[in-house]
Amino acid sequence: MKTARLMRMFALLSCLLPAAVPLAADELRSAYRSSVATTLSASVGAFDSVLGQALSGYGKVRLNGKGVFLATKASAGAPRMWWALEAREYHGSVEGRKFDMLLGIERPLGERSRLGFATGYGVADLDTGRDIRTQTFSFAPYMETPLTENIGLKAWAALARPDYRLGDSPRSAWRTAAGLNASGAYELRRMNLSGAAGLSMSQQTSSGVGDLSSWQVGKLTATLRTRATLRLERNFRPYFELGYSYGAWVNAGSSGDYETPSLKTGLSWTHKKRSFTLSLNGTQVFDPVQPLVLSTNYSIRF
């Protein structure tokens, strides 16, 4: 009797184990994919944000909600160095933190053009169903040059080597990304008109997990934006902004696209080297599912 009972228990376990192993492998692959998509988006966002600050003028110190930007003091015709730190927190399906530190050096080319080179190091500790730690080394040239008297062009490209650790299992990848932005501004009697058109792409080829061979995750985004800012008072500037973005993505064989019109209005205040912006996102005019979002941003430059 005991022998027959043991044989039945062994048969039951042998039926359950094959089902449990693929389930665990699926959970591991899902956690890994989520971590790759999150870190890719954050790293590209950090490069785009920091290089945007580096190319927007010669301020020495800037503080905002995401981090800090420091630059050596230099005139528009002299080389300079800069350093930046950005931090992001995640709550929801992805939990954890990501930090990106970038260091750059740039020099003027001609009267209004600049060429620079940046290197970055990022680290992330995320919980996407599994605890995953990531380290990323990046290199990126960037440039700024005028197209006309009122329109300028900014561009950057990056190559990165992210390494992922899932418990005791290391995984490596290669990442490429680039951004291109054209912007212009015109000053009327009581109004400033500005606009921008941007294109960004990112792609990462990652090693497999379990029976998943090497796979790619990538994204292409195009944006258009136009803003009218009223000059009603010296320090206060009410504004109205209309935008549109289109994106296409691919992730391990799956793909799709999306489009997002946006509508914003707000008020900005500047005094010397301090600024405060109050923004109301009314995109629900185009999509009733979208929430009405009120946000603020405070910035200090030294």
Automatic annotation (TrEMBL):
**One Pfam family per UniProt:** Autotransporter
Which residues, if any, are the signal sequence?
1-24
Q: What is this protein called?
A: Autotransporter domain-containing protein
The answer to whether UniProt assigns keyword Methyltransferase to this entry is no
Query: Would the keyword Signal turn up in this protein's UniProt record?
Result: yes
UniProt KW keywords: Signal
Top-level taxon: Bacteria
Q: Which residues form the Autotransporter domain?
A: 99-247
